[in-house]
TrEMBL record, chain A:
The keyword Secreted does not apply. GO terms for cellular component: nucleolar ribonuclease P complex; ribosome. Keywords: Acetylation, Nucleus, Phosphoprotein, rRNA processing, tRNA processing. It is found in: Nucleus, Nucleolus. Component of nuclear RNase P and RNase MRP ribonucleoproteins. RNase P consists of a catalytic RNA moiety and about 10 protein subunits; POP1, POP4, POP5, POP7, RPP14, RPP21, RPP25, RPP30, RPP38 and RPP40. Within the RNase P complex, POP1, POP7 and RPP25 form the 'finger' subcomplex, POP5, RPP14, RPP40 and homodimeric RPP30 form the 'palm' subcomplex, and RPP21, POP4 and RPP38 form the 'wrist' subcomplex. All subunits of the RNase P complex interact with the catalytic RNA. Several subunits of RNase P are also part of the RNase MRP complex. Belongs to the eukaryotic/archaeal RNase P protein component 3 family. This is Ribonuclease P protein subunit p30. GO terms for molecular function: RNA binding; structural constituent of ribosome. Its main location: nucleus. It comes from the Eukaryota. PANTHER family: RIBONUCLEASE P PROTEIN SUBUNIT P30, RIBONUCLEASE P SUBUNIT P30. Component of ribonuclease P, a ribonucleoprotein complex that generates mature tRNA molecules by cleaving their 5'-ends. Also a component of the MRP ribonuclease complex, which cleaves pre-rRNA sequences.
TrEMBL record, chain B:
GO terms for biological process: rRNA processing; tRNA 5'-leader removal. Residues 148-167 are annotated as: Disordered. Signal peptide: none annotated. Belongs to the eukaryotic/archaeal RNase P protein component 2 family. This is Ribonuclease P/MRP protein subunit POP5. It comes from Dicentrarchus labrax. Residues 156-167 have a biased composition (Acidic residues). It comes from the Eukaryota. InterPro entries: Pop5/Rpp14/Rnp2-like, RNase_P/MRP_POP5, Rnp2-like_sf. It is found in: Nucleus, Nucleolus. One of its GO terms (cellular component) is ribonuclease P complex.
Length: 292, 167
């Protein structure tokens, strides 16, 4: 049996609200949730990408998930709302602080680029406005091949009748082109009362044009594959994961195995599979005295 | 004789303030469900909802509700339930949402599930006890709420035990 996940809980600076949101998600039976930070760059000036608050600062004791004996797992996620191609900075060091990286393209060109090129995990579908473009088969298939997923969030449709129409219309037109594969349903809830139980969401998938099996996968196994995809994004071709163990002024792109520049750093290299399944770490001394 | 088939949905009413739960009654829940179905599925939904829809059981203390839907269209009607944001009872609007816990073909299987579920809730509550007496009381309730007697008794057990945990 797979576990349920909700990969979108809106971040708010109000800690008690976030706490009650996580508590309520655990009560409903979600074993993994992600706190979403939205970053919306404007054309004028450069803005700072929000830094994630560490989970243990946010909440001291994680609640136990309903029907299980484990505490809930909380991740950080960044959503970049793009209206121009310069807004996404590939391999930016700020992106590495987040567990999941999502993108919300607003034009057809950006949607195409996001599906085919950008190194992200989730492509959000806008649910608050009528779509300015159609989902074409080619980019959608490209995204499915690369393991990206499309996200439909439902809490806007609970708030308002017009939003409900947009949500259902956009979701159905997405399902036409991706045939129900690689879709996740998430809440984007700001208040605990906007969350819904996993079985209700599965059934809600019926309205969004998903079949029974696909709707169930949209809250469970597809979410799991996104998290694994995000883990491999941090590693070299999905096999080797490095992390810095010494404090040195190295270029931020040092996670690539081909380190550039003049520096000595010890990196512990290990096989990917999460902290729990790590067979052991291997210390590699990288002594590069190149003359670049 | 072929019997008329229905689906029973066991739903939990989630509210932010638990004292408001006591205002719930079956008529209020039925009105909220009917309004939501009419809003989402229009006249067709309202027509389907008027045939054999019924609120079978409401427990105001724990906030559990049994809904009966005709089997052939229960998924359609169920898909309207997430859009319920408030229930109007005793002239008051209670902001809440329904969380479906179980779908059963007979009311008996739902009842069995509810008792098991409530027992689980007690287990969850046990570490949060403030003093020894409370802990002892809950422990006794956990032992009590196994389904030995008839249906009726089981029901009472399920509801009673959950009341204690509210303390």
């Amino acid at each position: 049996m797979s576990v349920f996940m909700d990969l979108n809980l809106s971040y708010s600076s109000d800690k008690s609200r976030l706490h009650s949101l996580i508590e309520s998600a655990a009560h409903l039976g979600f074993s993994t949730v992600a706190i979403n930070y939205v970053f919306e760059p404007t054309a004028k000036k450069k803005q700072e990408i929000p830094a994630p608050t560490p989970i243990n600062e946010l909440i001291d004791q994680l609640p136990i998930v309903q029907g299980r004996s484990r505490p809930i797992r909380v991740l950080n996620r960044l959503t970049v709302v793009m209206s121009d191609s310069s807004h996404f900075r590939p391999s930016s060091p700020e992106y590495r602080c987040f567990d999941l990286l999502a993108i919300q393209p607003t034009t057809e060109k950006l949607f195409h680029a996001a599906c085919m090129m950008y190194d992200v995990d989730i492509i959000c579908i806008s649910v608050t406005e009528k779509l300015p473009f159609f989902f074409k088969r080619a980019p959608v298939n490209g995204a499915v091949d690369r393991g990206l997923v499309f996200e439909v969030s439902y809490s806007a449709s609970i708030r308002d009748a017009t939003m409900r129409r947009y949500t259902i219309a956009n979701a159905v037109s997405l399902m036409d082109s991706c045939k129900g594969k690689n879709v996740i349903l998430s809440s984007a809830a700001e208040k605990p009362l906007e969350l819904r139980g996993p079985y209700d969401i599965t059934n809600l998938g019926l309205l969004f044009g998903l079949s029974d099996g696909d709707a169930k996968e949209a809250v469970s196994s597809t979410c799991r594959s996104v998290i694994l995809h995000a883990e491999t994004r941090k590693s070299a071709s999905g096999i080797i994961y490095t992390m810095k163990s010494c404090q040195q002024e190295a270029p931020p792109a040092a996670h690539r195995l081909q380190t550039e520049g003049k520096h000595n750093s010890t990196e512990s290299v290990r096989l990917v599979g999460g902290d729990s399944r790590c067979a052991g770490t291997l210390e590699v001394e990288l002594g590069m005295n190149g003359d670049q | 004789m072929v019997r008329v088939k229905s689906r029973y949905l066991l739903c939990e009413v989630n509210v932010s303030d638990r004292s408001q739960l006591l205002l719930l009654d079956d008529r209020a829940v039925a009105a909220a469900v009917k309004a939501a179905v009419a809003r989402i599925h229009g006249d067709y939904g309202a027509a389907l909802c008027s045939i054999r829809f019924n609120v079978k059981y409401v427990n105001a203390h724990t906030g559990t509700v049994f809904l009966r839907f005709p089997k052939r269209c229960y998924r359609l009607l169920w898909s309207a339930l997430p859009f319920i944001t408030s229930v109007e009872a005793c002239g008051q609007k209670i902001p809440c949402f329904l969380n479906c816990l179980h779908v059963g073909g007979t009311i008996r299987t739902c009842q069995k599930f509810l008792i098991r579920y409530n027992k689980q809730q007690l287990h969850r509550m046990l570490p949060k006890c403030k003093n020894k007496e409370e802990e002892e009381q809950i422990r006794r309730e956990i032992l009590n709420c196994s389904l030995k007697g008839g249906n009726k008794e089981g029901f009472e057990d399920g509801s009673e035990s959950e009341e204690d945990e509210e303390e």
